[in-house]
Design a protein that fits this description.
alpha/beta; Rossmann fold; seven-stranded mixed sheet; about 35% helix
């Protein structure tokens, strides 16, 4: 599995990227690289933003792992690992001073799996309306020691993420991260203005 590097949307030209922090945006299921990039004018100015396109064409857009053949909220760990490896391979090919993640839904699940693949690599992680993949991982022990900064936001009216996936994440995060958890009343599977304000402040404190 490989990323389409021609599809990446950047907030700065190549000449400016190597000397600045990097913020990687990971969109949700059936979406595309232009979706979360629309938030970029409201995100911290210092990091260069790179919005990625997931590698699997599905449901009129793109997916990080197939949903049609998996249980909602509980994808096959090998599928999530394959997506994480593709992102890691791409990160290995570029220059930056430090890197943070911002993912929504499937992108949030991928962001948390990337932490498990490379526990010391990411300065800050924002996971919105998502979950951690099931099962243990080799990186979990190091995460439990280093406890990187993670923001997890979700809404009480989100019908897309099953309760079991929420409960799994609610148990995993405090043991493996310095977690900032925010729950938004009546928010469905989306991003609200209060949530945007909260995770932008989090990124300003941890990623810039």
């Amino acid at each position: 599995m490989h990323l389409d590097t021609d599809a990446i949307i950047w907030s700065a030209p190549e000449a400016q990227r190597a000397t600045r922090p990097l913020l990687v945006l990971l969109h949700g299921y059936g979406s595309h690289e232009g979706d979360l990039f629309g938030l970029s004018p409201q995100l911290p100015l210092e990091p260069v933003i790179a919005s990625l396109r997931a590698p699997i064409a599905e449901n009129g857009g793109y997916a990080w792992f197939p949903r049609r053949a998996s249980t909602p909220g509980d994808p096959a760990p090998d599928d999530v690992d394959a997506a994480a490896s593709a992102v890691i391979d791409w990160l290995d090919s570029i220059e930056y001073t430090r890197v943070s993640l911002l993912g929504f839904s499937q992108g949030a699940a991928l962001a948390l799996q990337l932490l498990r693949h490379a526990p010391s690599r990411f300065t800050a992680t924002v996971a919105l309306s998502g979950f951690v993949a099931s099962g243990g991982h080799a990186g979990d022990a190091e995460l439990a020691r280093t406890r990187p900064a993670v923001f997890w936001g979700r809404g009480t009216a989100d019908q897309m993420i099953p309760t079991a996936a929420v409960d799994r994440t609610d148990a995993w995060l405090p043991a493996h991260a310095d977690a900032t958890v925010r729950i938004y009343e009546d928010l469905a599977h989306s991003i609200s203005r209060p949530e945007l304000s909260d995770f932008t402040r989090f990124l300003s404190e941890h990623a810039a």
